[in-house]
Amino acid sequence: MTQLPNFEGPVCPMPLQHNETIVIGHGSGGRMTHDLIQKVFLPRLSGGQPGSGNDFAGAGLPAPAGLNGRLAVSTDSHIVKPLFFPGGDIGRLAVCGTVNDVSMSGATPLYLTAGFILEEGLPMATLEKVLISMQDAAAEAGVQIIAGDTKVVEKGAADGLFINTAGIGWIPAGQSIGGEMARPGDVVLISGNLGDHGIAVLAARGELGFETDVQSDVAPLNGLIQTVLEAAPQVHVLRDPTRGGLATTLNEIAHQSNVNITIEEKRIPVQPAVRAASEMLGFDPLYIANEGKLIVIVPAEQAEAALAAMRGHPYGRNAVRIGEVKAAPERRVLLHTLIGGHRILDMLAGEMLPRIC
Amino acid sequence: MSDIARLTDDFRDGSLVQGVIDEIRRTVTRPWVMMEICGGQTHSILQSGLDQLLPPEIELVHGPGCPVCVTSLELIDRALAIARQPGVIFCSFGDMLRVPGSQGDLFSIRAAGGQVKVVYSPLDAVRIAQQNPDKQVVFFAIGFETTAPANAASVLQAQALGLKNYSVLVSQVCVPPAMHAILSSPQRRVQGFLAAGHVCTVMGYWEYKPIAQQYHIPIVVTGFEPLDLVQGILMTVQQLEKGTCEVQNAYPRLVTEEGNRAAQAIIQKVFEPCDRNWRGIGMIPMSGWGLRPELSDFDAEQRFEVAGIQTQESPLCMAGLVLQGLKKPSECPAFGTLCTPQNPLGAPMVSSEGACAAYFRYHRPD
Questions:
Q1: Rounded Cα–Cα distance for residues B199 and B146 (Å)
Q2: Distance CA B359, CA B323 (A)
Q3: Residues B68-78: pLDDT tens digits?
Q4: With contacts defined as CB-CB under 8 Å, which chain B residues touch A339?
Q5: ipTM reported for the complex, 2 dp
Q6: Is A129 helix (H, G, I), strand (E, B) or coil?
Q7: Tally of CA atoms within 13 A in the half-sphere of B87 that contains its CB
Q8: Which residue of B has its CA nearest to A281?
Q9: What DSSP designation does A116 have?
């Protein structure tokens, strides 16, 4: 275990030194909160720079941007059980989730804020590990975490640690990428294997009844997106298929753009271990969450360039073309099955329930 | 474990499946109606789009083999009443949570503070009972012959562990009595059966031979992958065209005539035949299993006195006709409008094996 900070001075509500676990007093707003921020958060999230002491952050647009373009803003709350899972943890998830949401507009993500809800009793070492992971992910994505907030709730009122992150990015002038932009004739690309994150987290809960070596794909996608946009500037839609999986995300796009999306089952990349786990549990990988995959919808003439660019990036090595956008039947996603039939690929109706037999 | 995925590849191979479909096309000379018994088969047929590839002479009707769908409303209401009680941890297979009772479902009990847990295996429920000696743990033991051995094993394990806080709410049902009921109906349309492969893995297929003889109907034990299904359909069509009524096995990689003797022995040790009320169909004599009297200590119906259950089905739901293969889900006026997976009026719209849910997910009309 690394050296933990020592919280000195009077503390509230109990006159005890608490540097091993989170106690209610850490959320009091008093000295303990202050110490927590100064000694645990700031050294890890702002590169050691002192905070402004304000509850807001002033953020200038980067110099080359001038005042051209627009801001992309997004926020997302992260809860995951367990906090650490193969391939990632809640900290990496919280940074990547918001970086990716901001990036799906084609924006360059710049700044993040982070709000923490800590459960009394959370080991300080756990918090520290999560913060280091956040900083690592932020560094990888090239974003800064510039403001934060902490609350502590009684034991039992939260599940260890919840993190909300908000992000701001810069959309260059003239860029219009969004779920409403898909057009008939466009090609649908996916950056790699589906279902890794969902299966990795389920396995980490120990509820599968078998072991698997599947790793979560949680990753910041802004680098991949930048590579794609340089190769194929006419991209219409970028989207990360997180909760609800590829099927749900494609349905959202089909509705937003008032188009049909038809995909080929045989082209959909799923790694064998995820397929096997899904078979046994009665899950469909098309509905399982991903945290580091990118859907790109692009005019046909730029599809090859986009695909080649994706494959040249570490997070897009297994990128493939999975389908195309058509005019009708609108607001529907269709799947051409392995045996040559076709069917509706619907949104996830509710919680994915394991089947009986 | 990755090998499991590779195992299924050949059984989903488009050209192999097409080859068998071509053979069906060459064999069939006139219309035939056949029923796949199991809801898992219904889903596989619609999920793979197989129904669109078969020649028009073949009509598949969907059978009652969805355990969630046929569990009686009275038992679901009883489950809800037990789950609502303080000090109870109610364990269930995931599919059951959204099945509507007369008022609400298990999800709504959980939202209201009840302890409802999804388990993957009944033995998980026994473990929960061990870990929570101050709580009463109840497992909703539903299903056909497929789930019966594991459900029975949980009772034996609880007994061996001396657990006083474990009980099962039993709704076991059996396939052969349902086949009798369907075949004796005056509205009978079914001319051939694709028997449920997983049920036969446990029970074998010896018990189907008298049925095939009595009703002069071919019965082919069939698996769940597209290639399994077309093979079962082909063998059924061949028999229908020849006019034979044999029991054949198109799923020999898992099924033998005598079945799994060890599993059957566990079932017999714990359960005995009883009458069962099938949701949407009604009472079928000796169509289910209940706990043997010597194991009544583990019977949740006896442990929890629940009085005054008055069931009320949605008057719009025609699940019974669907489960008997007399109507297609899309023929129901409520289908896709008043009744959807988000707001199901009947159980077949809920389950991953329910015919209405399969139609809604894969074949909803525009």
A1: 5
A2: 13
A3: 888 988 899 99
A4: 12-14, 17-18, 48-50, 53, 226
A5: 0.76
A6: helix
A7: 7
A8: B120
A9: E
